[in-house]
Design goal:
Elements: E1 2-6, H1 10-21, E2 25-29, H2 33-40, H3 51-58, E3 63-66, H4 69-73, E4 78-81, H5 96-109, E5 117-120, H6 128-139, E6 149-152, H7 162-167, E7 172-175, H8 181-187, E8 194-197, H9 199-230, H10 235-242, H11 270-283, H12 289-306, E9 315-320, H13 335-345, E10 349-354, H14 359-366, E11 371-372, H15 376-382, E12 385-388, H16 398-401, E13 406-409
Parallel strand pairs: 1-2, 1-4, 2-3, 4-5, 5-6, 7-8, 9-10, 9-12, 10-11, 12-13
Helix pairs in contact: 1-3, 11-12
The structure holds nicotinamide-adenine-dinucleotide (NAD).
Length: 413
């Protein structure tokens, strides 16, 4: 298998050196001549632990560095595009360098004996592959070829650990319309699960990861400002102690259950404590927009879900789960209550409900005019549509078992 890598920056050089060290015949193409010279001399143009020695092990062996595009592309099976996608003036991702690289290669591919698989490794905003790159390549007359395949394969390496991360990935994500055997074979030499997902999903996963990291950093900074506004708080110590929370440990760490979409947080603690800290720091002179936004999103997410319900299904709807979370009968500040209340206010008739252990306590707490069921089978029989409102394991895979009713999986279980 011959691999071509376009762009030999942090991602591209690491990718080229990595594939070459896995035994693949790899050609690295770069337009910056000074980078080419440095790399050909066995040195990366930037510092990355372990990369220089890995480069020296393969250079002029099965890694070939070139500024001759024909040499790079001729008979290639796969091309990886690792071109920069910097911030443009208006803040959006500047895809022009990547488009230029595709244009350069398209010209030569037409002269080549075989059509390689085009794989975009650069970070591109969700929907770019389908809405920008595919039409662009179509205009260049490539897509008509029956062998033409365009995929994306986001890279998750961290600068400072680039080579090690590339060689030992935790997941390999490929965005494509179908499973591509050549990419599966290529990555079978890496000890990591391979996920084929839609191109939009693959693009989204990369941003899901990066924006989560940004959010955590801004969250920590915002909390440090709150601490300062209140005073007499040892911020450094407080964060060190936070890190001991056992939910951060294990595989997968239990904290992942908090980084999951659903109907928002309820229960006795999170809503009241988040609001109380917002109020306290506001009183002390610092209004945290982030915490305010956390609360606003939590309040609005139910409306987002309700708006997805088919308007014709406004009678005999079943609510699955009443407690604020599974494995608990606590219904205080339960999102199911807010959901049912909003449905009643909208004029929904014959609302049914079932919770494995919280029917009575929910009824005694809220006294809503709804019909309770003592079993899952009973509520399924009685309803035209069902909403999974608490992520009890009993409700997993319901959509596979029930085919004749609409199921709204608001907890994404
Ligand atoms: N740096 C990271 O830690 C990291 C991690 C994951 C993903 N990414 C993403 O990967 C992409 C590349 O990032 P990077 O940090 O490697 O960028 P970079 O700027 O270090 O490297 C890009 C390289 O592409 C070359 N290039 C530009 N046009 C070219 C062309 N037409 N043909 C051949 N080469 C060309 C440039 O000269 C440069 O060497 C970006 O989309 C980035 O967001 C970066």
């Amino acid at each position: 298998m011959k691999i071509a890598v376009f762009g030999l920056g942090f991602v591209g050089l690491t990718t080229a050196v990595g594939f070459a060290n896995k035994g693949y015949e790899t050609f690295g193409f770069e337009i910056d001549r000074s980078k080419i010279t440095t790399i050909k001399n066995g040195k990366a143009p930037f510092f990355e632990n372990g990369l220089d020695s890995a480069l020296q092990a393969v250079i002029n062996n099965n890694l070939h560095i070139t500024d001759d595009i024909k040499e790079a592309l001729d008979c290639a099976d796969i091309i990886f595009y690792c071109i920069g996608t910097p911030m443009s003036e208006d803040g959006s991702a500047d895809l022009s360098y990547l488009l230029e690289a595709l244009k350069m290669s398209a010209k030569y591919i037409k002269l080549c004996k075989k059509v390689p698989i085009f794989v975009i490794k650069s970070t591109i905003p969700p929907s770019s592959l389908k809405e920008i790159f595919l039409p662009f390549l179509q205009n260049l007359g490539l897509v008509e070829n029956i062998d033409f395949i365009l995929a994306n394969n986001p890279e998750f390496l961290r600068e400072g650990f680039a080579y090690d991360d590339f060689m030992n990935p935790d997941r390999i994500v490929i965005g494509a319309d179908f499973e591509i055997d050549k990419l599966k074979d290529l990555y079978s030499k890496f000890n990591a699960p391979i996920f084929f997902v839609t191109p939009n999903t693959a693009e989204f996963i990369k941003y899901l990861s990066n924006t989560m990291l940004s959010m955590m950093i801004s969250y920590a900074n915002d909390m440090s400002v709150i601490a300062k506004s209140i005073g007499n708080i040892d911020t450094k110590k407080a964060f060190e102690i936070l890190h001991l929370d056992k939910r951060f440990f294990g595989n997968p760490a239990n904290i992942t259950s908090y980084i999951y979409p659903g109907m928002g947080f309820g229960g006795y603690c999170l809503p009241k404590d988040t609001l109380a800290l917002y109020k306290k720091s506001k009183m002390q002179g610092y209004e945290s927009k982030l915490i305010k936004e956390i609360l606003d999103i939590n309040n609005k997410i139910i409306d987002f879900h309700i708006n997805t319900i088919d308007e014709n299904l406004n009678t005999d709807i079943g609510i699955l789960g009443l407690s604020f979370k599974p494995n608990s009968d606590d219904v205080r500040d339960s999102k199911s209550y807010i959901l049912i209340k909003k449905l009643l206010d909208k004029g929904y008739k014959n609302i049914h409900a079932f919770d494995p252990i919280s029917n009575d306590i929910f009824h005694n707490t809220y006294g809503l005019d709804i019909k309770y069921h003592s079993s899952l089978d009973s509520i399924i029989q009685s309803c035209k549509s069902l909403i999974i409102s608490t992520a009890w394991s009993e409700f997993k895979n319901l959509d596979c078992k029930i085919v004749d009713k609409k199921i709204y999986n608001f907890r994404y279980i």
